[in-house]
Here is the input.
Amino acid sequence: MPAPQYGDYQYEIYFDALDGVAPRFPVDAASLERKAAEVLPWWVHSYVAGGCGDEGTQRANVAAFSRHGIVPRMLNGAYERDLSVDLFGMSLPSPLFMAPIGVIGLCSQDFHGDIAVAQASARTGVPMVGSVLMQDPMEDITPHCGDTPGMFQLYVPRDRDLAASLVERAEAAGYRAIVVTVDTWTTGWRPRDLNTGNFPQLRGLVLQNYFSDPTFLKRLSAPPAEDLRAAVREWIGIWANSLQWGDLPWLRSLTSLPILLKGICVRRARDHGIDGIYCSNHGGRQANGGLPALDALPGVVEAADGMPVLFDSGVRSGSDVAKALALGATAVGVGRPYAYALAVGGADGVVAQLRAILAELDLLMAIDGFPTLADLRAAGTVPVRT
Here is the structure.
């Protein structure tokens, strides 16, 4: 018998059904979102599902994948596939990772979603990129990741001492890279949330990395438990900074960990000590009217000139992952689908969704004749008229 492959997950589902065991969770993102809308508090669902402006860029991110087609390469002996990648010294079984979601902690029924996601990461080998916006302190998350390495996403605060403290804590907690988001020093115009006044952070939610940080606490006249509104006002005043290229050497000096810039920017990054690029437009949540992230990916890969390029925005399936890889991405992040899976089924739901995405990716490679990710990238994609 051949070695187990991700695509074998479909047989688990089919054989369970023969014994009268129906699938616990849908395998597709659209069905998960419908179920999540039924169980999430309206304000959490609105925050996760919504985008910027009329959400045109969010829709364009998803639609962009339909304009790319993968050409099969038959008779290549793809009976077994190798999906493994090496990323900054991390040996990963697949190119999939979980993108940072600042309210993921609120997406589980117990409001400890960061921990549930870490548990799913441990069970699947799919890394999580933990957002600085957590419902539990970062030190409480990594023990649940098991042997699966994780990364830490940072909005660089205006207070440099606080930035240094957060990075130092992340390194001490065992995160293996720092992802610096550069397109979110203020929030974008989000009508879904504006129409209801819905900003969870202003209620003190997902701020535990700040409320547990000694440098942040020094800025307060009273602990958050005694004066939450004052703590939140202090946070909103310093939580993120509009970085400039000249800030990168200082940022580089804070840690020996690899640093990635998250956003569609690359050409000068290498000169400032950056180790990788994370091509993303924040899933359409920050600026409406821009180009889909997938359309920017080939240019980012070319400009990166060998640096690892991570990608997210609009990824909904294993075939989407395959197309991003074919366009040159080193690793591909899934966002909203795992948030919806968490809402529907906790850690078990996330595991099921990650396995479904990997199964579809693996089966596409098997059927189209790509034994390795290198083969898939070499084939690239062709334009599809829609």
